[in-house]
Specification:
Two copies of one chain form a homodimer. By secondary structure, chain A is α+β, with helices and mostly antiparallel strands. Chain A folds into two domains: 243 residues, Zn peptidases (Aminopeptidase), CATH 3.40.630.10; 110 residues, Alpha-Beta Plaits (2-Layer Sandwich), CATH 3.30.70.360. Helix content of chain A is 29%, strand content 27%. Chain A has nine helices and 19 strands. An eight-stranded mixed β-sheet of chain A has the order 1-2-6-3-7-18-8-17. In chain A, strands 13-15-9-16 form a four-stranded antiparallel β-sheet. Chain A has a three-stranded antiparallel β-sheet with strand order 4-5-19. The longest helix of chain A has 17 residues. Chain A is elongated, with a radius of gyration of 23 Å. Chains A and B meet through helix 5, strand 13, strand 14 and strand 15 of A and helix 5, strand 13, strand 14 and strand 15 of B.
Amino acid sequence: MIDPSEGPVALTRQLCDIPSVSGDERAIADAVERLLAERAPHLSVHRDGDTIVARTELGRARRVAIAGHLDTVPINDNLPVRDIVDDVSGEAMIWGRGTVDMKAGVAVQLALAVELAEPAVDVTWIWYDHEEVSSALSGLGRAMRNAPELFEADFAILGEPTNGRIEGGCNGTLRARVHYAGKRAHSARAWMGVNAIHRAGAALSKLAAFEPARIVVDGLEYREGLNAVRIDGGVAGNVIPDDCSIEVNYRFAPSRTPEEAADVVRVFFDDADSVEIVDSAAGARPGLDAPLAQGFAAAVGGDPTAKLGWTDVSRFSALGIPAVNFGPGDPLLAHADDERVPVAQIDAGYAGLRAWLERGA
Amino acid sequence: MIDPSEGPVALTRQLCDIPSVSGDERAIADAVERLLAERAPHLSVHRDGDTIVARTELGRARRVAIAGHLDTVPINDNLPVRDIVDDVSGEAMIWGRGTVDMKAGVAVQLALAVELAEPAVDVTWIWYDHEEVSSALSGLGRAMRNAPELFEADFAILGEPTNGRIEGGCNGTLRARVHYAGKRAHSARAWMGVNAIHRAGAALSKLAAFEPARIVVDGLEYREGLNAVRIDGGVAGNVIPDDCSIEVNYRFAPSRTPEEAADVVRVFFDDADSVEIVDSAAGARPGLDAPLAQGFAAAVGGDPTAKLGWTDVSRFSALGIPAVNFGPGDPLLAHADDERVPVAQIDAGYAGLRAWLERGA
């Protein structure tokens, strides 16, 4: 059983200790649903698989969606969680799988969902399954397709780890396979062939020298990245290779569409024989010019920055809802085996979000 | 049964039609051994596995080793052989597996071994197994280790296809694996890592621009080659790769030792984290300044050129025996599914070798 009455830090420990690797979220979703049924009669609760949507229906002028995923990456001898003191900073921490990504964020949200029967804005609380796996499996994406009306909102907050600061929007991401062709020949007579691996060298040198753009969108700076992530070529130890392919990953500012990003990649590799777009996902503009976003930023303090990794804010962005990331924990520790979250960030996140929801934006 | 009495062209057809893919040479070796026992009492015959060494013991002042391999690469719907007329040249040809590499050469040798009871030099005829596979399996190498005294000679002729011209010595070959290291990072924050694939770009560009040397050894020009033959790197589609390795093949002139060749490769890739020599095989100097070699060249005519691919002449060279390649067929058709040898080259090779062996060098 989970119980928010001892506060969000204790609730973080409880949520972490319910194993919920992607595909195995039923137990934690059941616990959340039961808690809401018993302790949050002010919420109307909907369930889609292991995704739970719980809404206030107060008739407020504005509505905010606040979301977090329930799943984690695989456990690696790092459950149950432990209380530790960080060697370097001396901070009290909770150590273990899910502490950063993102049970602490879910705990802050779930405690407030139960406690705040009459927030100043209507709130749609969302906890969902299958975030840490292929985008096609996403519980948030599925629930949005099945009942889009449940997700209408003026602003969205996603509890992904941001060290308790606001990180707006996110970069888009695109993968492409870049092919260089050649002509086979025996390597004793290399001049009768064309070496495809050698042909790929110019593109790699260009990548090594390339300075990706830093693009300001709605006041936040997005740092792009263009990288070879895989390379493969060759036939045999005595054959001039006739094929070499480079897989590249382009992280692009949310001011570009995926189509525009694909054009950037095609132009960059204009010496290739083909550029095949493998997959792509749009970024999300930070939307910090929206009044609700500005009020939220003022309430929680600190200078908002750009989110660099792709997150589910882009699913809200695709529905026309400005969205930011805001959660406890260092995003660089997400998925790390020594994942750990400072207790103080959980309390601060809880206090900031509570103040804003009570006072209204 | 094989029967050289109808000449080397008919014998070529007979030898080709005994399937003898590497590892399956017993039938052809048995046929050769039986023929020699019945028709060549002037030879002393030794067998080691499927390698046969047949020597005249005439007490001549000089001895010549004449060798050819009995095996072929796999059959691919190209046996039995057929007589064809070449579309372009109008030449009469024998088409099928082994015609070029190197049953025609073996047929010329075997016919002369039976016919010439009293050549002007002593001759050591050698037909061996396992040439088309790993060097460690070579029947010639094995027989040389088991009974080195059988292989002593002043000059050696290997019947590999050379279009009926003398191709002297051979290039050496060396394979190396060149490693570039990096540092992993999430590709959304590429600047926190070091991209090993990007680091390999400069080496590939250098390879693409590199003009390998042409080196004159004993009067013949050897064209070197330095090529990437395989490349491999990458971890996942969203990870900056921490490793990239390039496999390179260096074909080096016989004036360099394998150790010197390894140094050339290490200096070329001086920006790599490591250069691992995978294997190497020495080349062979052409030895055309030896009196026997000069006499042979004069007898068969044409301008000797350098052999570019590695061949077993280097095994003779390693024993201090000057060695050349001389056989019917276009080396560019070796291993091709439409392998085919001009009948005229078989007859000419037979006539040239016979004249030289009868007249003495």
